[in-house]
Structures are given as C-alpha cells and as structure tokens.
C-alpha cells in the first residue's frame, strides 16, 4: 500500500482518494461534493500571535478554535 500526500490531495496506491468515500465496517457513503483544501497559510497565521508559547489552557483552546475556523 502506497499513501501519498500532494497539493492535489491524498492518494492511495497512486489513485486519488476522496476521504468522504471511505467504507467503514461494510457501510459505504459516497459523495460527489468536491473536497476543498484549506489554505495552509491561513491556518499557520494563527501562530503569529505574540506570546503564543506562554499561552495558558484557555488561550490554547481559543487558538485551536481559530485554526479550525480558518480550515473550514
């Protein structure tokens, strides 16, 4: 089994893989919704906050929330 990551998405044995079409325990859901890839620069921009290394638990949760929002 060969798994690849590229700017075009995920590949499995050199074939494009849509993560929305993976069978689980004999149940397979298929989707024709195109996968929109988030912009990595938007997600990484969260780390440009001042004093991110000194963030407490609550601030860390807020940082993760903002990363998820930017990935949507």
Short synopsis of the structure:
By secondary structure, the chain is an alpha+beta fold.
Q: Which short descriptors sum up this protein?
A:
single chain, 72 residues, alpha+beta
Characterization of this structure:
With 72 residues, this protein is of the alpha+beta class. The protein starts with a strand and ends with a helix. The protein contains two helices and three strands; from the N terminus they run βββαα. It is elongated. It has a domain at 36-72. A hairpin with a 2-residue loop joins strand 1 and strand 2. It has helices spanning 40-44, 57-71, and strands at 3-6, 9-12, 15-17. 0% of the residues are buried.
Write the topology of this structure.
Layout: E1 3-6, E2 9-12, E3 15-17, H1 40-44, H2 57-71
Antiparallel strand pairs: 1-2, 2-3
Structural class: alpha+beta
Distance between the termini: 30 Å
Largest sheet: 3 strands, antiparallel
Number of DSSP E strands: 3
| Uncertain residue segments | none
